[in-house]
Design goal:
disordered N terminus; two-stranded antiparallel ribbon; alpha/beta; 7-stranded mixed sheet; globular; 16% strand
Amino acid sequence: MAAHSEGVPAARDRSQPVSLRHRIEYFFALAVLKPLGWMPHRMARSICGLLAALAYAFWPHLRRVGMFNLRLIFPDLSEKQRRKILRGVFRNFGRTLADFAYFPRLGRENIEKLIVYDGFEHYAAAQKRGKGVLFLTAHFGNWELGSFAHGVYGYPCHFVVRRMDNPLIDALVNRYRSLSGGQPIEKRDFSRQVLRAFARGEAVGVLMDQNMAPSEGVFVEFMDRLACTTTGPARVARRAGAAIVLGLVIWDRRLKKYRLRFESVDWLSRDDPEEEIIANTANFTRRIEAYVREYPDQWLWVHRRWKTRPPDEPTIYPL
């Protein structure tokens, strides 16, 4: 990998003003990432595991949101079982931070020590169609590692991002994400940029498990609850005729490494175009749900996924 400057990153939107607070936050982030990336990976993971345990203990807001979601979705579990799942979520955060810091040191010669393919043939078949690949994913396992590792293996893909409030940290994070050849696509310019990538036969990774505003999504079932979900992935895939694969990064306790799991996703046809969009959005969500149920401690329970409600329903979050 090429070496990178430790100063303020130049690749950022100049229209965003940079404040003193932004600079302080940036240098703090750099002071965390750089040492973690320099030290032995096992040591970095141990340190980040400790940081994750401290975050669980001293970040009550995230803990409350996580426990509320787990009570909502798994009413039959005991509080002890829910806390066990939530502690696993925080451990996953720790692993993710340590691995993200290690991105500059990852290459083809050592990537298999961290992550291996599982079901790559599904991605290869999708790519062979030549109309682009929609790489559906979620805040699951080490989601930052999915598109990055795919690029290291020789298949760089674009990834859709939401701009961070701090433009310096936004540029820093996207610089790390892009080290294996992938390029970010701003959520604000989603349709145009994704369709261009598909026209070139390229792949685009999209996280689609976040709560959306009513104007940005439709309500589909997720974990037996209606959840407002983006229709963007289904709309661009339909328009471009792109192939669709589900790609999730799963922590395998037996292997002590991740698996980048690919599965093909069939397109569901309907007579009405809008019904077709909704049906496929629901299908994409069901595929993600199956993995959340199988590996509950690897999903982002601390996000208020069910915040947006249908017009006839009251809010469910007292937070």
